[in-house]
Amino acid sequence: MRLNPTSFKGTSYTITEFPRPSLRRVPNKPVTSFIDDDDDTFQSKTKQMLNIMYEAKGVGLAAPQIGINENIFVYNPSDTKAMERIVCNPTITKYSKERSDECAGQVARSIWIETEYQNELGQKVRRRLKDFEARVFQHEYDHLKGILCYDRFPPEDREKVQKSIDMLLGLYTEDDAVIDPDVEEVKAMQPKPLSARYMPPLETEQVLGSEEEDDEETIPKKQKTKASTAPGGFGAGGGGKKTGKRRKRRRRLKQEMQLDRIIQSIRLLARQLMQVGNDKVGRYVSFVPAAVSLALNIEL
C-alpha cells in the first residue's frame, strides 16, 4: 500500500515513503552546481521536483522525499507560480518564541523565522518568513535533517498514528529500513517538540469574572445585601438563584469552548485534505475520530 502516487508525468522520480533510508539519511550533500553552470542537471532536477509537487497537490517537496540526498527543496505557499522558491543549502538562523500548532497531529512551529540559503542561481539570500510560508519552510527544512512530521508529535498524537507506522513497517520488504531519526538532529530540533498535547486554556474564569461584575452592577442594592447575608446553600434567597445562573453560564461557555475545538480540528483536517488532493482522502479521514477525541479531550 502506498500513500502517494506510484508515478508522475515526465519524470522517473517518485515520492519515497517511510521507512526508506533516504528520508533519514544525514547529512545531505551540499548543492554546488546551479542553473548558470554548464551542467543542466540542476535545472532539470528542480523542474521535475516542482512538477511532482504540483501533481501531488502539495506546497513543498524536499530532495530526500524523492530519494535524492542533496541539500535542496522547493516550495510554493500560494496559488501563483510567481511564489515558487528553489532553496539550496539552507539554514534557519533565528526562530521566534511564538509558536503555532497545526498538522495531522499537533506540531509546534515558530510563527516567523530568519533564513539564509542559495537560490537557483547560486545567489545568497536572506529572508524573514512568517505565517504559512514560515511553516512550509520549516517542514521542508526538517526533511533535510531527516526529521519527519510525526517525530514532532506529542505522545498522545504519536500513539494515535502508531498503528499506521507499524503497518508501513510491515509492508516494507527491503532490509534497509531506517525507523528513527539521527539522535543529534533530534537534539537540535527547533522549536522543541511538544511534551504533551496543548489544549487552549478554558478562559471561563476570566470571562465569568467580567460577567459576574456586570451582574453585580445590575443587581439592586437590596437584593445584593440580601444575597450576601442569607445562609448559604441551594435556594438561599437571591444567592441561590444567582448561583444557578452562573452554573448555566459555565456549562454554556464550556460547551462553546468544546465546540470551538471541534471546529478548529475539522478546519485543520479540511486544509490538509485540500493540500493533498482526493487521492489521499482516505488517509486523512482516518484522523477524524482522533481529532474529535482530542478536541473534546475524551476517549472515543
Describe the structure.
The chain has 300 residues and is α+β, with helices and mostly antiparallel strands. It folds into two domains: 21-188, Peptide Deformylase, CATH 3.90.45; 204-296, no CATH class. It has helices at 41-55, 131-144, 155-171, 183-188, 204-218, 221-229, 237-276, 281-285, 288-296; strands at residues 60-62, 72-75, 85-95, 99-101, 108-110, 112-118, 124-130. It has a five-stranded antiparallel β-sheet with strand order 1-2-3-6-7, sandwiched between helices. Strands 4-5 form a two-stranded antiparallel ribbon. Strand 6 (112-118) and strand 7 (124-130) form a beta hairpin. Helix 6 (221-229) crosses helix 7 (237-276) and helix 7 (237-276) packs antiparallel against helix 9 (288-296).
Question: Layout of SSEs?
Answer:
Elements: H1 41-55, E1 60-62, E2 72-75, E3 85-95, E4 99-101, E5 108-110, E6 112-118, E7 124-130, H2 131-144, H3 155-171, H4 183-188, H5 204-218, H6 221-229, H7 237-276, H8 281-285, H9 288-296
Antiparallel strand pairs: 1-2, 2-3, 3-6, 4-5, 6-7
